[in-house]
Design goal:
The protein has eight helices and twelve strands. It is of the alpha/beta class and about 240 residues long. α2 packs parallel to α3.
């Protein structure tokens, strides 16, 4: 049974959509604001997300960006009361698979869901990468190993053994590698790797970021930079 996360602040519409999708055979969880939606997403496994654009605490676009950092492949449909082209453009920029303008028919929403799930099902056999290319580095996530690639490198520069990473270092580097050349917010990284964004965990993460910079310093084309007001970005 496909599982859907619905985040809609209108209680009447939210309940109506949830009941309809449940009746059609979709297990549907519902949240009423962006923060609650992110918490549910992190705690569950979903085949598709439906996000209202205008919501309290965290709007649908911001929620989609954070969800994409955690799981790039989950399909997202936006719901909005606006018909402005700018909303549609912004939605697709943050990774929307479709865009439905209110008011809409339940049948239309169902057909869009079915079409998207069929499209994703065709590519479902493609496994998530376990080895990430970061400049001249190869990061083997399952074995927690970071090593230089010999390709186009002088032998004297690649004689050092592979660096064995700790679990936290591996989780943090994987998150950054999954979002290569894209900013990852401090709060999001803390919640994903440490479980919460407390002050003490934040200080701990700064230490791990410093360690990762040290491991990556041998390749001048690779940088782990601070992004003011956002968090970190791994550039390669």
């Amino acid at each position: 049974m496909p599982t859907i996360l619905l985040v809609e602040d209108d209680p009447n519409l939210g309940q109506l959509v949830q009941e309809y999708l449940t009746m059609k055979g979709y297990a549907t969880d519902r949240a009423t604001d962006g923060n609650q939606g992110l918490q549910k997403f992190m705690a569950g496994q979903y085949d598709l997300c439906i996000f209202d654009v205008m919501m309290p605490k965290k709007d649908g676009f911001t929620l989609a960006k954070e969800v994409r950092m955690a799981q790039r492949e989950v399909p997202i449909i936006f719901l909005t009361a606006k018909s402005m082209q700018e909303d549609a453009i912004q939605g697709f920029k943050v990774g929307a698979d479709d865009y439905v303008t209110k008011p809409f028919s339940m049948e239309e929403l169902l057909l869009r869901i079915q079409a998207i799930l069929r499209r994703y099902q065709r590519s479902a056999d493609a496994p998530e990468p376990t080895v990430y290319k970061i400049g001249s580095f190869s990061f083997d996530y399952p074995h927690q190993l970071l090593s230089r690639s010999a390709e186009n490198e002088p032998q004297s520069e690649i004689e050092s053994p592979a660096q064995k990473l700790t679990s936290k270092e591996s989780e943090l580097l994987k998150l950054l590698a999954q979002n290569l050349n894209q900013p990852v917010s401090r709060s999001f990284a803390l919640k994903m790797v440490w479980g919460d964004d407390s002050y003490f965990n934040a200080r701990s993460m700064d230490v791990y970021v410093t360690k990762l910079r040290k491991y990556l310093k041998d390749d001048a084309t690779v940088q782990l930079v601070n992004v003011h007001g956002e968090g970190f970005k791994l550039i390669a």
